[in-house]
Specification:
Elements lengths: L1 H7 L10 H6 L41 H7 L5 H14 L4 H9 L3 H9 L9 H15 L3 H26 L33 H13 L5 H11 L3 H26 L35 H9 L50 H6 L18 H25 L10
Helix pairs in contact: 3-7, 4-7, 5-6, 9-12, 10-11, 10-12
The protein binds a DNA duplex (14 and 14 nucleotides) through helix 1, helix 6 and helix 11.
DNA sequence: TGAAAGTCAATATC
DNA sequence: GATATTGACTTTCA
């Protein structure tokens, strides 16, 4: 399946060894031949306002759909691609919105997210790879910037035109109840119903949720309900928050791994051995890896009382390592999780498991005996160190759990 | 069926 | 005004 191949396949495609190669060196690449066939930017009769979700149709000459192209694509260096795209956009004063809507068929927020936190190729599903293939094609198109500039001009022209006509009509084009006032979708005004107001969690609520997450990245329904009632939130909000937080922490860690590896993304460079990667059940676990209790931590997790002894009380915003790494995203800092007892000290036995990461980030502490509260030269080093420690601890914990089961079929990773 | 992935779009921030 | 963040939702997948 796409997902399986994305996360577990040994990357059959030829790996790209460097940023430059991956961005510019696609000679012989199936996609390279498509580069010049990138569809000219549609000259939208409506005034150049393309919509997300209706990206430019793809290169026509081969008759390949984007899905087919994605499937055919060799492994791309997503980090290098986004870096290059950001560069080009900045250099040419092109906005994310225009780029997203025109080239990728995505909204500005999605583009921002994608450019800031690209996931490694092998972690992406086919769908997730699509924007990167589009970006790659765009970068390869010698007229890409030119076309986008044209589009920008067209948009500006259309905007001015509308402004003018609205002024002459003396009623604002943007007036009325379009867009933000109504639920997504284009109902006629009569059918429109008011949007649900966006929930904005307060700092205390976020803090409490983070603490709860540190204790249990996968809270039981009971825990969720307790959290919801104590924070006066809907359970769906709490559930969504956990989903989003897990997902975003995971992505943060991808980035960190990439950066720790020197910005080169290749098979394995995200620091995960395939055997450890992509294990759903193993990804991000609770402190004890079970859902058995789910009661005690709730009150503590809400920050209603100090629980520094249980899980480290640190700012998840600044160091989201509690989510673990891409190996097992949700981790608890081993220094305080209570798991770092005898036999599970941070780093012990983890050398091999982290050899890839460590090898590529020699400036960091050795993978063994990672200090609890890092003495790293800068917060980033410290952050990374803690993250690795947490990751190691989690792996050790799983190994211990597995070892405690006699029947190998019961082993859980 | 639950979790992850992917995305939208409102809102915050720069 | 552009970009970043994030709650909510849909789709995909195991």
């Amino acid at each position: 399946t796409p997902k399986t191949s994305a996360s577990c396949s040994p990357a059959p495609e030829s790996p790209l060894s460097s940023t430059e190669e991956s961005v510019n060196g696609l000679v012989g690449d199936p996609l390279a031949s498509q580069s010049s066939s990138l569809k000219p930017l549609s000259e939208d009769p409506s005034g150049g306002e393309s919509q997300p979700g209706t990206p430019l149709p793809l290169p026509g000459h081969s008759g390949l759909s984007i899905q087919e192209m994605v499937a055919m694509s060799p492994e791309l260096d997503t980090y290098a691609i986004t870096k290059k795209v950001k560069e080009v956009l900045t250099d040419n004063n092109l906005g994310q919105r225009l780029f997203g809507e025109t080239i990728l068929g995505l909204t500005q927020g999605s583009v921002s997210d994608l450019l800031a936190r690209p996931k490694p190729w092998h972690k992406l599903s086919l769908k997730g790879r699509e924007p990167f293939v589009r970006m790659q094609l765009w970068l390869q198109d010698p007229h890409s910037v030119e076309k986008l500039m044209d589009m920008k001009r067209l948009e500006k022209k259309a905007y001015m035109k509308r402004r003018l006509s609205s002024l002459s009509d003396s009623h604002p084009v943007d007036g009325g109840l379009v867009g933000t006032d109504y639920v997504q979708g284009s109902q006629s005004p009569g059918q429109q119903h008011l949007k649900k107001p966006r929930v904005v969690l307060g700092p205390e609520e976020k803090e409490a949720l983070k603490k709860a997450y540190q204790q249990k990245p996968y809270p039981s329904p009971k825990t969720i309900e307790e959290l919801a009632s104590q924070l006066n939130l809907k359970t769906s909000t709490v559930i969504n928050w956990f989903h989003n937080y897990r997902s975003r922490i995971r992505r943060e860690l991808f980035i960190e791994e990439i950066q720790a590896a020197g910005g080169v993304v290749g098979p394995g460079s995200d620091g995960g051995s395939p055997s450890l990667r992509g294990s759903k059940s193993g990804e991000g676990d609770s402190c004890d890896g079970t859902e058995s209790d789910g009661t005690v931590e709730t009150r503590q997790g809400l920050g209603l009382e100090d629980h520094r002894g249980a899980c480290k009380d640190h700012d998840m915003e600044a160091d989201s390592e509690a989510g673990g790494s891409n190996n097992s995203p949700a981790q608890i800092d081993c220094t305080t999780s209570g798991l770092a007892g005898p036999g599970s000290s941070c780093g012990q036995g983890g050398l091999g498991l982290f050899s890839l990461t460590e090898a590529s980030s020699s400036s960091h502490a050795p993978s063994t005996n990672i200090p609890a509260s890092g003495t790293a030269r800068n917060p980033r080093d410290n952050h990374l160190r803690k993250k690795k420690a947490a990751n190691l601890n989690n792996i050790i914990h799983r190994l211990e759990k597995a070892a405690s089961k006699e029947d190998p079929s019961e082993w859980e990773f």
